[in-house]
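C-alpha cells incoming
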C-alpha cells in the first residue's frame, strides 16, 4: 500500500526513509511445499507441548499475570545446555529482536560496522534504523568469508556462521582471528544455523571479552512460531543488552514462550536426533540435485544454495511455484542465479527432486 505525502506528513521524518525487511512469504495454498523460510520440517519436542499445557492448566494465572521480566527459568535452561553461567545469557522475542538490541548496544560508533556483502538482509535494515554507518565486505569468488578482510577500522563486526544464504561455515580458528584483530570492538557471531553441522563460538566466550554469540530456537528447535532467540557473552556485554531491553520492552517473552523454550533446552536427546535427521537428508538432497546438474555450495545449514548452469534461477523458482513448491530467490547482484532451498523431510525433498526431473528440467 502506498500513501500520499499529505498522509505521510504525520510520520517521523526518519520513518519516511525506512526500507523495512521483507520476510519470506507465508502463503496459504493447499498442498504447498514450503521450502522458503528455513523452518524445521519436524515438530518440536513433545516436552514443549506438555510445558505449554502445564502453563494453561493454571488458568487463574496463565494469562492474567505478567510473566517473569527476566525469564530466569528459560535463561537457566539455556545456561545449563550451553554450559555457561546464568548472567552470560540474554533472551529476546526471536533472535531478530536480540540482534536489534545488539546493534543498539554496541554498534552505534563513529566507524562503520562491517559485514559481508552477501549475508542476512536484516543487518542493513537495523543499521539504517539506528543510523549506523556500514561497510560491506565482498565474499571471495567461492562465496566464502575471507577473515583477513576484517582487519580494518570498524565500529563492530557481525558475521553469520554458517553464512546465509550461502550456507558456508567458518571454523573457530578463523573466528578467533577476527576476535584477536579487533580487541576493542564487539564481534557478533549470528549462529542461527550452527546446530546443523558447524562449530559454535559459545566455547570461546570465556576467552574473549569482545564476543557475542546469537542463536535462535526458530530453526534447529522447530520453534519459529514461539519467537525466542538468545545471546551468550561475558556478563559485562549481557548487562548492556539488558539495559537496552529494559528501555524498550520489559516483558518480551510471554509465559508460554518461557515454559516451552525451557522445555526444549531440557530435551537434548530429541534436539540432537532432529538435527541429525536434517543433516542426513541434506546429504541425500545435495547428491540428488548434483546428479541433475546443479552446483550446490557446501552447506552446514538446514538449507542449501544451488545454481544450475543451464537454467535461469528466477525461471526455476517460478516453475516450482506452479507445481506448489516455494523456494527463496534473491534478485540481487552475484546471487541472482541461485536458489535457496530449505531442507525438508526425505519425502518432501523427493517431491522437489521429482518435480525438477519430470516437470522442469526435461
Ligand atoms: C532466521 C534467522 C534469524 C532470526 O531468527 P528468529 O529467532 O526467528 O528471529 C537471525 N539470523 C539469521 C541469519 C537467520 O537466518
Amino acid at each position: 500500500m502506498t500513501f500520499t505525502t499529505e498522509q505521510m506528513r504525520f510520520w517521523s521524518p526518519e520513518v519516511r526513509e525506512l526500507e523495512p525487511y521483507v520476510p519470506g512469504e507465508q502463503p496459504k495454498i493447499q498442498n504447498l511445499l514450503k521450502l522458503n523460510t528455513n523452518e524445521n520440517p519436524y515438530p518440536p519436542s513433545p516436552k514443549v507441548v506438555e510445558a505449554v499445557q502445564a502453563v494453561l492448566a493454571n488458568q487463574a494465572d496463565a494469562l492474567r499475570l505478567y510473566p517473569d521480566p527476566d525469564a530466569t527459568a528459560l535463561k537457566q535452561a539455556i545456561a545449563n545446555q550451553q554450559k555457561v553461567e546464568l548472567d552470560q545469557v540474554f533472551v529476546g522475542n526471536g533472535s531478530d529482536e536480540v540482534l536489534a538490541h545488539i546493534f543498539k548496544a554496541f554498534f552505534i560508533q563513529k566507524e562503520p560496522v562491517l559485514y559481508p556483502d552477501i549475508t542476512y538482509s536484516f543487518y542493513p535494515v537495523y543499521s539504517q534504523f539506528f543510523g549506523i554507518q556500514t561497510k560491506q565486505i565482498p565474499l571471495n569468488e567461492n562465496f566464502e568469508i575471507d577473515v583477513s578482510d576484517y582487519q580494518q577500522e570498524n565500529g563492530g563486526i557481525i558475521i553469520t556462521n554458517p553464512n546465509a544464504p550461502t550456507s558456508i561455515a567458518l571454523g573457530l580458528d578463523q573466528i578467533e582471528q577476527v576476535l584477536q584483530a579487533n580487541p576493542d570492538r564487539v564481534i557478533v557471531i549470528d549462529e542461527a544455523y550452527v546446530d546443523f553441522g558447524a562449530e559454535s563460538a559459545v566455547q570461546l566466550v570465556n576467552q574473549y571479552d569482545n564476543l557475542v554469540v546469537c542463536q535462535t530456537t526458530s530453526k534447529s528447535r522447530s520453534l519459529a512460531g514461539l519467537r525466542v532467540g538468545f545471546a551468550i557473552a561475558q556478563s559485562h556485554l549481557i548487562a548492556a543488552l539488558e539495559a537496552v531491553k529494559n528501555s524498550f520492552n520489559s516483558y518480551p517473552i510471554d509465559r508460554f514462550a518461557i515454559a516451552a523454550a525451557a522445555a526444549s533446552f531440557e530435551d537434548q536427546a530429541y534436539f540432537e536426533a532432529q538435527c541429525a535427521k536434517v543433516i542426513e537428508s541434506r546429504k541425500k538432497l545435495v547428491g540428488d540435485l548434483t546428479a541433475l546438474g546443479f552446483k550446490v555450495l557446501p552447506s552446514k545449514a538446514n538449507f542449501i544454495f544451488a545454481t544450475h548452469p543451464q537454467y535461469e534461477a528466477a525461471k526455476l523458482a517460478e516453475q516450482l511455484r506452479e507445481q506448489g513448491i516455494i523456494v527463496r530467490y534473491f534478485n540481487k547482484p552475484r546471487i541472482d542465479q541461485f536458489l535457496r532451498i530449505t531442507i525438508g523431510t526425505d519425502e518432501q525433498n523427493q517431491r522437489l527432486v521429482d518435480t525438477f526431473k519430470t516437470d522442469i528440467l526435461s
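note: The domain at 46-266 is CATH 3.40.640.10 (Aspartate Aminotransferase; domain 2).
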